[in-house]
TrEMBL record:
Annotated InterPro entries: LysR-like_Sec_metab (IPR047788), LysR_HTH_N (IPR000847), LysR_subst-bd (IPR005119), WH-like_DNA-bd_sf (IPR036388), WH_DNA-bd_sf (IPR036390)
UniProt domain HTH lysR-type: residue ranges: 7-64
Highest rank taxon of the organism: Bacteria
Name listed for the protein in its UniProt record: DNA-binding transcriptional LysR family regulator
Similarity section: Belongs to the LysR transcriptional regulatory family.
Species whose genome carries this gene: Cytobacillus oceanisediminis
Gene3D superfamilies listed in its UniProt record: 3.40.190.290, Winged helix-like DNA-binding domain superfamily/Winged helix DNA-binding domain
Length: 308
């Protein structure tokens, strides 16, 4: 048995965040304190346990073997406390706590804000944060309990995840202004081989849908002249605008760019439907905060407002 010590959740939270973010400054920013304060919390936790929790001689922040064990246990403790807080709120007829949403680029930019606004209107005491990344990374974060809810452009295949199709979009070809393809009405590999392409990175939901789209026409990604891979929709549109190449992108993102005259949509080429999926760990679906946020997605009035 350990002697009595001043263990608290703040220390555990600081340590878990440090191992995940690998940056004292990022942890300090998230917890709203200074870097020395974070360092003191970690030192205090190590003193409580009489253990060294991370390797101070490594160029990156990583756990010692004992630290890895403590990290796993600390994550579990913090999650259980969060669940307890959420379930207790049903006795108070309100919700408080934190909700971490992970979203891929398109839903994170064009769908999530409206839902967060409605959720905040209903539950103003819940603190909401949104992390934007590609679909594959968000799915990994869901599995690892690093985000509570994900909205992604790939249907997760893990049996640990509950998935709900909540919105749809179309993928369209975009070109620089006055590009020959902007007036084309046929899609074939011989035509596309003549043009340079701007592509999203591996793991992107948009890229995966584009691959499926081209396969229907017997076109492989290897048939395309890839000039550059980019990590965001805006970077992709900016590259097309600059004349680097052509690409496929969500219509949600293409319309504002085309309306402002930055690029053109190849209207003659048939668009391809895609879906977005609301995902969470199956074991967490009945947690009050997750349950209430999920319920917003089935509300017809907000779906009509967004146009999904």
């Amino acid at each position: 048995m350990y002697p009595k010590y001043s263990m608290n959740f703040r220390k555990l939270e600081a340590f878990v965040l440090l191992i995940e973010k690998k940056s004292f400054s990022e942890v300090a920013a998230q917890l709203g304190c200074t870097q020395p304060a974070i360092s003191q919390l970690i030192k205090s936790l190590e003193a409580d346990l009489n253990l060294s929790l991370y390797d101070r001689y490594s160029s990156i922040i990583r756990t010692t073997p004992a630290g890895h064990f403590v990290y796993q246990k600390a994550k579990s403790i913090l999650k259980q406390w969060e669940e307890l807080e959420g379930e207790i709120q049903s006795f108070h007829n309100t919700l408080t706590g934190n909700l971490v949403i992970g979203a891929s680029t398109i839903p994170g930019t064009y769908l999530i804000p409206q839902y967060v606004r409605e959720f905040h209107r209903l539950f103003p005491n819940v603190s909401v944060s949104v992390e934007i990344s590609d679909s594959k990374k968000i799915i990994d974060k869901i599995i690892n309990n690093q985000v509570d809810i994900g909205l992604v452009g790939i249907n997760p295949s893990s049996n640990k995840i509950m998935t709900l199709e909540v919105a749809s979009d179309t993928l369209v070809f975009i070109t620089p202004n006055n590009h020959p393809l902007s007036n084309s009405n046929s899609l074939n590999s011989d035509t596309l081989r003549n043009y340079n392409f701007v592509l999203r990175e591996e793991g992107s939901g948009t890229r995966k849908v584009m691959e499926d789209y081209l396969t229907i026409y017997g076109i492989q990604m290897s048939d395309l002249q890839s000039v550059v891979h980019v990590g965001s929709t805006e970077a992709l549109i900016a590259s097309v605008e600059a004349g680097v190449g052509i690409s496929c992108v969500s219509k949600l993102a293409a319309i504002p760019a085309a309306t402002s005259g930055r690029i053109q949509i190849a209207e003659g080429l048939e668009p391809f439907k895609r879906s977005f999926y609301l995902s969470t760990l199956s074991k967490n679906t009945n947690l009050p905060i997750i349950k209430e946020f999920t319920a917003i997605y089935t509300a017809k009035d907000i779906q009509d407002e967004i146009g999904i």
